[in-house]
Amino acid sequence: MLRDLANFNQNGVEDQWNTPDEPLAEGEYWEGDEEDNEDAFVNFALLSNLAVQLKDKVPRGTHVKGSIPYPKAFTGKDIVSTIQQQIQRELLINHNVSTSDRRAALQIARSLQSQLFFYEVEWGNKVLQDGVEDVYMFLDDIEGGGGELSELPSGVVTMMTRCYSIMCEEGVKCYAYGCPRSDSTLLGPQVVSEPALGPSNQSWATKVEKEIIESLPESEINRQTIIHKIISKEEAYIEDLNTVEKTFINPLLQSQGVIPPDKLHDFIDVVFSNILDLRECNKRLLENLYVRQREQSPVIQRIGDIFLEAATEFRFAYPNYMGSHQAAERRLKEEMDNNVDFRMWLEAQSRNPKPASASDAHHKLDLKHLLNRPPEHLQKYPVLLDAIHNETARGNPDGEFLVTAIDAIRSLNGVAQLKTFQMAMGRGTPGKWEWHDLAGPEVREKMTKDEMKRQAIIFELIKGEMAYVKDLENIGVMYIQPLLQADPPIIPQPRLNQFIASVFNNYADLHQHHLRLLDRLHHIQREQHPVIRSVSAAMLDAVLHFREAYMEYIPNYPIAAWRIDSEMRNNPEFKTFVDQCVRHPDAHRLDMQNFINRPIPRLLRYELLLKSIHEETPPGHEDKTEIPNVLDLIKALGKETEPGVVSAKQKVELWKYNEGLVFKPGESVDMDLLDENRSLIFAGKVMRQPEGSLEWSSWSELFVLLFDNYLVMTKPKERDGATKYQVNRRPIPLDLLTMISFSDPPTQRSAGLLQNLRGGGGNTHQSSPSGSHIPSPEFSSTSTSSNSPSSDSRLVYPFTLHQSGRAGGTHILFAESAAARTEWKQKLEEALGLRKVVQEANKVFEIETLSIDTFLLPSMMNGTGSGSGLVQQPSYEGSYTGRVTCSVPFNTADGRGLVAIGCAEGVWIGFRHDPKSMRRVLHLKMVTQCAMLDDFGIFLVLADKSLFAYHIEALVPSTPHAPQASQVPQKLNGTKDVHFFSVGNLHGRTLVIYMKKKGLDSIFRVLEPVGDKINERSRQPAGFGSKLGFRSAKSEWFRIYRDFFLPSESFDLIFLKAKIAILCTKGFEIMDLYDFKSVTIPQREDPRLAYLSKRCEQCRPIAMYRSTEDEFLLCYDEFGIYVDKHGDPSRSTGGVIEWEGRAERVAQHNPFILLFDSRFIEIRSLETGRLVQIIPGTEVRCIWDGRGVGNNVAQTPRLGPNGGELSELQDAKVHAVMNAPEMHAPGSGGRGASSRVVTQLVFELIPTLPLDYQDGRDSYIMGGESQFSSMQSTASYMNPRSDSQYWYTDNRSVNDYYQPAR
User: Fold this and answer.
1) Are strands 1171-1176 and 1181-1184 parallel, antiparallel or unpaired?
2) How far apart are CA 1302 and CA 1300, in angstroms?
3) Which of 225, 882, 1046, 1273 is most buried per CB count within 10 Å?
4) At residue 137, what are phi and psi to the nearest 5 degrees?
5) E-strand spans in 912-988?
6) What is the DSSP string of 381-413?
7) Helices 536-553 & 623-660, crossing angle to 10 degrees?
8) How confident is the model over 306-359, as pLDDT tens digits?
9) Torsion-angle region of residue 1186: left (phi > 0), alpha (psi -120 to 50) or beta?
10) Contact, 380 vs 233, CB < 8 A?
11) Is 296 left (phi over 0), alpha (psi -120 to 50) or beta?
12) 909 with 887: CB under 8 angstroms?
């Protein structure tokens, strides 16, 4: 019937929806059948509905009161909890009342009690409390009772009703005066449950009938008095814990600005720890005491079992609180000392607390005292329980429970003490405790001496692990976070992250591994203390897991230590920061290097401690077999890190040398010593006698550094307590170094040069490069001063090296012993071999042949001269072509990729990548330059100082039967000699500029091609000039655009974006062709640049390139210099780069420049000037530097690593020529010197690695073998004609002529 009543709505009308009118179809269901939806039909504002829910859901059981069991009973707490479960959702949504606030449920329960919906089993008149003191039942649950109630309690719970306004919504303020949502006083004030046992100051004897007291012995009276005293103390203790929450925790959470919000929760967690968990534990204990008091009142028979159960629960809460208690006190004191607002707030809360009872109204609360209550209260339990046990009669079963409970609670103090030690992490007095401080005398008395020693070593292992983990944590707290948060930054931001990564590396990984190990050791310690059986399993697991982390960390330590030392030497702010950190309380007066070194000795400490544990372990114990396995793993870890440590030390030594090198002003060389792959092969002392010296005592000592890319000779000198290496000559690239002799007989050091000249050996010519680095300690004390003959007559062993290049020559050095000379030989061979392999694998350009057997020279023409001037020689019956001087790639109208090559005997044209296809198309003498105007089909040739223009169709017709273009070239320069010409685009115009000389002046004429005239059908030549093969001096294909002159000798002309640059004796003349205004760079007026100005006057400008957005590289034949857009040197070091050779010409292939010496090609980074590659050769010359109109020559398709075609930047942009190995002329049979010829190898330079264009500049990828090999194509069909100097093709497609290699 009650369930039926619950289905009525507010008007008393039964809902008709409970039973469906029609049967449900198959697969359908009725949501009303689900129990979860029953609450949807309950109106919690009606007391009758709540009564029905209470009757159905309140938990019933057998409860004892006054030694009488009552079945189907429940307590006041059960009633309040059941009602709270029903209404807490409504209260939270409508009134924002916390689900832990039980005031509304208590008021509803008391309303139901007043209407006798349930009754107290002893029919007392006590007001229902939210506790377990009283037992209640329903009338209809009594056997023989009156059955169900005739009517339910009635009433309206106002706070649960809904507002009558339809506009009332959650989160919106309602206008209705009586809206339940707006009435915050409905719940009434926060009240504290009334104590069930009356005033705590009443003794037990005053509350018990006199007859009962007289019937009990005195010991039982004392026993009952102590039991009730324990209950009273428990009530007071819980009230103190409530005060902590109400007076301090909750107000602190609601305060504004007392503690910064980002630190508030952390402060509460540290200071108050799990004190609220303790309160819940003790509440459950007090409830159990109340239940026992209710069941056995007035004389409680048993209490030991209750405390034994409580001790089990306390074990999980009290040790944690007591272990962190010292940290809480320390944190509280720090906040009070440093935060005035918190100190004032705490004082106000202490003087004006929210009293829980009237007795507290005028009591000043001390937070520190309240936080100390749990340890004090726990220590009183054994005393009180022991007093109860002393008054317990013999034979009472409660005696055994009391003894067990006393031991269990006393053990909690030991566990709490152990937890205090663990939480201290090595700090304070608890952090200094040893094993014997935590193991009582009664424990030690039962152990052997060996076992006590073993336990002490295990304890030391755990204690050391705690200190180690704390130190790893302090790395982040003391160093990393302050460095990251410093404002202004201690280390500049661009270097900060790199510094932290290189110094601290993966310390965080080590911290996590050892934190897990420590947690496991602490768990073992808590479970087994004071006698720990074994830690070998935990150690074995940890070693297996942290192995990889140590493999990364240990080899990095030398690098980290050097980074710290270097930063302290060069950064005063960082040195001050490190000194301040040393004074940190947790630093133990140790600096940063000691902290980052901690992991290394820790591994050694593990080995020592585990060996000691193994020695003290009795036979048959598991550690006898397990510990050796752990030791083997630790030893293996140490050995496996040795190669990495050695490599890191070598790298640090290299960096030290790099930091210590001191160059002469203006002679600095970027040797890329900080590259990750750079290595120091060898370093040691040698002797040298200065060039031309006749002094017997002129020997000087050098400290020679052999890197994997340079050989550097230095003289160490002490400066400011550090050794610096003075570089006295230019470092020698290993690519230019050759080993000559290591077998010359020794000579006496005191003999001097005169004996060498008489045949005793010695230094006949020396030219040694210079370098500077930090000397080794044993060398730093050496002196470069002369030694007298009487004191230094030892034998020295010479060895000879040769350096190619502008500063090259023979270097004769002397070793102190034959063994030292042999070692130098071995190390030099190793370095040169390594350099060769590395350069081959990392070369950025490789040679691809354009012609190898077409262009021949007689051996007599292969003179020593390396200039670009042409030496005229006879053709030797057509077998010899003369010196190759120029080339240019181009495309025909039908898409064929060709290359034209000019030499002393004319111009040859052929297919690219088909050396056999070369055919002579022009019989001209002294060809020095050629160029192609692709948009107009015009081929320009400078021959014998005359500039000619040819229509490309006249030289390379598309088809043999097509209408022929003009076969007669046009001479562009009239009667004046042309020294050079240049083509390019300027403001959308295609221009040709050539230079003639008039005295010392340079006369320039600017021509512009006329497309209409060029494309006109050829007319028959007329006149005497035409009969000679040339048209009139006035060109029809070009018109004169500008004429101007420069009062200086000029060497070349370069087209810039909007201007031109003329390379002349004054430097680089930047001119605007519109108004001919010009400026000369580099600027030479600044007196600070006097040395540079003198150097520029002595050298010849040869090229100019843009290196960055606002910077240019000016190239002279001996050096290069970076300047800004105003022509001033742009780099702090002066921006001067000394070439290794004497550059006759420079070419650009972004991001590189290529400098051509007659002996090698020097390839450098355009942006940094760093030497990248050297290609050796004989009589090397650049014949095309990549310049031209558009420079859009269609190249042979090149396949990338994935089969796709590479970008334009992968194509060749530079052509060159060098002498091939010697061969004999055809038909000579190899007889006679006159028959020997020199073959000229014409080639292009192909990038071996992808060059990507990023951010407006080219970038390249270094490393790895060459991705692409030379490609060869099938020979095309070519047929020369004798009557006209051109060749033609048949009507087949270009694919029939050219098949790209795959």
Assistant:
1) unpaired
2) 6
3) 882
4) -145, 160
5) 919-922, 927-933, 938-943, 946-951, 970-971, 980-986
6) HHHHHHHHHHHSPTT-THHHHHHHHHHHHHHHH
7) 20
8) 999 999 999 888 888 988 888 888 899 999 999 999 999 998 888 765 544 434
9) left
10) yes
11) alpha
12) no
For 130-187, the pLDDT digits (tens) are 888 888 988 777 655 545 556 788 888 887 887 777 777 766 777 777 777 665 555 5
**Type and span of the H or E element at 1282:** none
Give dist(CA 595, CA 591) in Å, integer.
Answer: 7
Which residue type does 949 have? A
Q: Are strands 722-727 and 661-662 parallel, antiparallel or unpaired?
A: parallel
Measure the N-to-C terminal CA separation of the chain; round to a whole number of Å: 95
Q: How many other CB atoms are found less than 10 A from the CB of residue 35? A: 6
How far apart are alpha carbons 708 and 672 in whole angstroms? 11
- The single residue listed with the structure tokens 């006249």 is 954
- Alpha-carbon gap, residue 575 to 569, rounded angstroms: 8
The full length of the chain comes to 1302
How many helices and strands, by DSSP H and E, does the chain display? 36, 48
CB 647 within 8 A of CB 555: yes
Q: Which residue spans within 438-477 are E strands per DSSP?
A: none
Q: Which residues contact 331 (CB under 8 A, 6 or more apart)?
A: 267, 270, 271
**Two structure tokens written together for 524:** 């073992």
For residues 383 and 406, give the distance between their C-alpha atoms in angstroms, rounded to a whole number: 9
CB-based contact 955:935 (threshold 8 Å): no
CA distance 226 to 1296: 116
Q: By C-alpha distance, which of 1137, 1161, 1134, 1135 is closest to 1149?
A: 1161
| Residue type (1 letter), 972 | L
Q: Which of 292, 283, 191, 196 is nearest to 240 (CA)?
A: 283
Q: Mark out the alpha helices in 475-598 (DSSP H runs).
A: 481-485, 493-504, 507-528, 536-553, 557-570, 572-582, 592-597
Tokens encoding 1270: 């030379």
pLDDT value of position 999: 85
- Contact 372/244 with Cβ under 8 angstroms? no
Residue 291 host element (H or E): helix 275-296
In angstroms, the Cα distances linking 519 to 425, 504, 512, 598, 1292 are 12, 24, 11, 20, 83
Q: Report, as ranges of residue numbers, the positions in the chain whose pLDDT lies below 50.
A: 1-35, 146, 191-200, 355-362, 694-696, 751-792, 864-877, 1020-1030, 1032, 1192-1208, 1224-1234, 1252-1302
Residue listed under structure tokens 């006190």: 329
> What is the DSSP-derived secondary structure letter of residue 1?
-
pLDDT of the residue at 44: 84
Q: Peptide bond preceding 858: is omega within 30 degrees of 0, i.e. cis?
A: no
| Residue with the two structure tokens 């609670």 | 409
8 A C-beta contact, residue 419 and residue 323: yes
Concatenate the DSSP letters of all residues of 1200-1267 into one string. -TTSPBP-GGGS---EEEEEPSPEEPTTSTT-SGGGEEEEEEEEEEEESS-EEEETTEEEE---SS-S
What span, in angstroms and rounded, lies between the C-alpha atoms of 555 and 558?
7
Tokens, residue 928: 């020095």
For 370, left (φ over 0), alpha (ψ -120 to 50), or beta?
alpha
Three-state DSSP state, 592: helix
- Say what the pLDDT of residue 976 is: 83
Q: What is the pTM of this model?
A: 0.64
Distance CA 760, CA 753 (A): 9
Give whole-number Cα distances, 596 to 462, 502, 559, 586, 1261, in Å: 21, 11, 11, 15, 35
Residue 148: DSSP 8-state: S
How many Cβ atoms are within 10 Å of 623's Cβ, its own excluded? 21
Number of alpha carbons in the 13 Å side-chain half-sphere of residue 1052: 18
